Amino acid sequence: MMTISKTLLKKGLTPFRTLLFSVLLALSFSAAAAPLDDAKRAGYVIEIPTGYVEATPEAPASIKALVEDINKRRRQAYERIGQRNGITADQVGVESYRKRMGE
To answer: How many CA atoms lie within 13 A of 81 on its CB side?
Structure first.
């Protein structure tokens, strides 16, 4: 299976643009990072392979609202990045998950 990074390079994107892609992705999530990290440590939120987060059944309503907001922001970022790079938002999400998990 070809990774998104290889796909980006095949589409003529330079290593610089691929790095820029990664930086933009990271910056798009920094605003909600602290509350999200706290919710993850508490066991209320998990990362899923699609690049989004999911609240566990026992998560309080405030955490579920946070998850909805984060996923909305991620979707917007994935769409924006995908459009700039000629790939789908779903592909960006999967690559984001892989980078977040250190793959």
So the answer is: 30
Cβ atoms of 59 and 39 closer than 8 Å:
yes
> Any alpha helices (H) in the chain, and if so which ranges?
4-10, 15-27, 33-41, 61-85, 89-100
Q: Give tens-digit pLDDT for 4-48.
A: 555 555 555 566 566 666 666 565 555 557 888 899 999 999 999
Domain spans, the chain: 4-100
- Residue 42 DSSP one-character state: T
* Interval 55-83: pLDDT, tens: 999 999 999 999 999 999 999 999 999 99
Question: 5 is written with which tokens?
Answer: 């990074």
Contact criterion met (CB below 8 Å) for 78 and 89: yes
50 class by beta-carbon count within 10 Å (0-12 exposed, 13-18 middle, 19+ buried): middle
Residue 102 pLDDT: 86
